[in-house]
Amino acid sequence: MKIVSLVPSITELLYSLGLEREVTGITKFCVHPQTWFQTKTRVGGTKTLNLEKISALEPDLIIANKEENVKEQVAALAGRFPVLLTDVNDYAGALEMIREVGDYTNRKDKAQQLIAAIDDAFAHLDTGPAVTAVYFIWKDPWMTVGGDTFINDMMQRAGFLNLYAALKRYPAVDLNVLQAPEYILLASEPYPFKEQHKAALRERYPGVKILLTDGELFSWYGSRMLKAPAYFRQLRMHR
């Protein structure tokens, strides 16, 4: 089986399932594992796929995602190759995606073991008292996450109550009317928030605790979820 992965978090999942020889193509954002990033054929960005490169690989399976990839590009590929289109919006959906990928790639047992390990890790996560928070993924315009996202589910499990949970997907936020939460979380991706952004917001919201956060551990569904509970505990040390 020759597999092309168009989703960074799923590329890492395929690695965890032991599909070294099967995976032939990945995107330029599939940075984990580093060995694959350096050796596998890169087929463009998640939203700027090189369809000719993908076709040249003659894949038996292409794994895409409804949110991360462009509908028209995925449809064009589906006309020629088998495509597994994933759609992950919460914790349960992520585990179901792992099971599905395991089924499609003949790694059912490994997938089930990974699901059990993730469930066990989260079962032992004590979040403590919940605090209100806003999780920023972008600036100019400032954008946050709504309640129908995987990130929102991870926020809840980490003990953060999303002030924008009543909204959908990724709403823009006007800082002039932002109701100050107890915490502001600045993600490392897709926008690479840095210390200067943290400092600027601290001046604007002196009573709010502002944390730079690892966006991968809030937004990557797949095997990286194993690392999330320990990271969420670390965040609590700053609370």
Automatic annotation (TrEMBL):
Alphabetical UniProt keywords: Receptor, Signal
The keyword ATP-binding belongs to this UniProt entry's keyword annotation: no
Pfam families, alphabetized: Peripla_BP_2
Keyword Zinc: no
Residue ranges constituting the Fe/B12 periplasmic-binding domain according to the UniProt record: 2-239
PANTHER family: PERIPLASMIC BINDING PROTEIN (PTHR30535:SF35), VITAMIN B12-BINDING PROTEIN (PTHR30535)
Descriptive protein name: Helical backbone metal receptor
Biological source species: Niabella pedocola
